[in-house]
């Protein structure tokens, strides 16, 4: 069984939370003389592995549970291809109106824009909200006018770790990451999927 290896900074975060719970992210950052952005990935790992419990608008708590090394190692070695889901594809000619309808019908957080089979852009809920509020003809205006275009899209590959994907989602505050094979999106990793994964893992334990 592999030994759990937390960084010195992560151990310091745990000790601070133990003494000061509930501790906010800002309080933790100040205690370490760092910025909130610097420790965001550490907090993500500590909450996803069950060491800390994050409660919105309250702060972080120490879970009090002994971390199971086997579960930690299983999650740490989990690959993107084991957790990715199928994206919802649209074309750049799709109107903002039709994209909004598709988003809700498919119950997804983002739409992947393709040309032939290549990924050329992503449209998020936030993009569509901005597009809906703009003074334009929603049934005529294509989503190409509001999408985030390649190469300005963060991506992962199927061999990247699930924890790496989770860190990217947290650090960059985005809803999903395309899983790429050359120029083709073969899947996606979303915050919703990762949250469900960690909840199910520790609930079953």
TrEMBL record:
Task: Please give the organism.
Answer: Listeria cornellensis FSL F6-0969
Q: Name one GO molecular function term.
A: DNA binding
Taking every annotated instance into account, which residue ranges of this chain make up the domain CBS?
83-138, 147-205
Q: What protein am I looking at?
A: CBS domain-containing protein
SMART domains xref list: CBS
Q: Which keywords fit this entry according to its UniProt record?
A: CBS domain, DNA-binding, Transcription, Transcription regulation
Domain of life assignment = Bacteria
């Amino acid at each position: 069984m592999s030994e759990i290896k937390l960084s010195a900074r992560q151990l310091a975060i745990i000790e601070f939370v133990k003494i000061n719970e509930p501790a906010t992210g800002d309080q933790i950052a100040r205690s370490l003389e760092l910025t909130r952005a610097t420790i965001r990935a550490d907090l993500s790992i500590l909450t996803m592995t069950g060491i800390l419990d994050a409660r919105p608008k309250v702060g972080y708590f120490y879970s009090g549970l002994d971390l199971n090394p086997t579960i930690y190692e299983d999650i740490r070695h989990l690959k993107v291809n084991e957790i990715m889901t199928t994206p919802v594809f649209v074309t750049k000619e799709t109107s903002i109106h039709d994209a909004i309808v598709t988003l809700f019908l498919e119950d997804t957080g983002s739409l992947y824009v393709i040309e032939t089979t290549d990924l050329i852009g992503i449209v998020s809920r936030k993009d569509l909200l901005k597009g809906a509020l703009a003074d334009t003809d929603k049934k005529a205006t294509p989503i190409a006018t509001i999408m985030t275009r390649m190469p300005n899209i963060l991506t992962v590959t199927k061999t990247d770790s699930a924890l790496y994907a989770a860190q990217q989602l947290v650090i960059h505050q985005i809803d999903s990451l395309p899983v790429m094979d050359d120029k083709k999106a073969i899947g996606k990793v979303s915050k919703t999927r990762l949250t469900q994964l960690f909840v199910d893992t520790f609930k079953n334990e």
